Request: fold
Amino acid sequence: MALRIERIVLRRIRMPLVHFFETSFGRTYERQMVLVEAVADGVSGWGEVTAGENPFYNEEWTESAWWILRDYVAPRLIGEPLDGPESVAPRTEHIRGHRMARGGAEAAVWDLAARQAGEPLWKTIGGGARAEIPCGVSIGIQDSVEELFEKIETELAAGYQRIKIKIKPGWDVDVVRRVRERFPNIKLMVDANSAYTLADADHLKKLDDFYLMMIEQPLAHDDIIDHAVLQAKLDTPLCLDECIRSARHAEQAIRLNACGIINIKLGRVGGFLEARRVHDAAQRAGIPVWCGGMLEAGVGRAHNVALATLPNFVLPGDVSASRRYWKRDIILPEVETTPRGSIVVRHEPGFGYSLDMDFIASITEREEAIGSRGR
Reply:
């Protein structure tokens, strides 16, 4: 499908979270996000940049994404014919890093292509293996274990199929022990967000006692080799997140036996094309994958739903209902879960939801359109 992007519109929005979200990086009370609108032949496709407000998850942050999109990505996409959305990544791959910024634009073009074809995004990307997405939740570090218990009980009552809790040194083994004692039968995993080193291997080994689904990214954000050493010491599967930025990284990790599971985040790997390649590499090796979350608003959340329809997304992901994070989301209707703890895949064109343009306008702090004749 040939495409000629006429205009790209960037919007930086600000949305307060319903409740703070704490990881080993710190607490987040609100999100600043960049929305990307790609326009061609009177049709708009939308993407969302999943970078955080600070360069803590990786080297990207909201402000850096804005400049990369405006000055480097958009000029390479506007005005020149594209063979299809698969052409976006090759057009921008010589930009080192900045996969979240590039992925936000790439997702917008995939959405645009789906809307022009009159088909759902999941079909355009080659998904459709399931009609409902199994959902889990990610629960941040709380002020007390009792508060954590309350959060878990609330999410289980809502039907979520898997609970992930964040850990860090000083909030790990004893907390997980108490959670497992309180909830002996739930599907439970932990996420360390790179808070440990290989010197902590004996300490992390204690987590084997709690029959966890996985331990996510315990070591450095850019490490694969030490994860292989750690995995050999543990019975619990390691799940790699931050260090898997491409299919090549996934293949290396699999070859080294550095993990038993891979988390695929659309922005982290640079968009749908590379996400499919990571998915396929893991599937060939018999490694299950699941869809991670980055506190997305509705556009990014809807893209995650489409991604999770690919066949090897066999584990419940972090794609949950809008109301867990936002008093009001930027899409209509908002993403909702069933009592079964799943999200029903929609069949409308594109990512399947309408944009609440009035609300988007009210929370937009900055807007800029880049056209074929320049800014």
Observations:
- Residues 99-117 form the longest helix (19 residues).
- The chain has a mean pLDDT of 95.
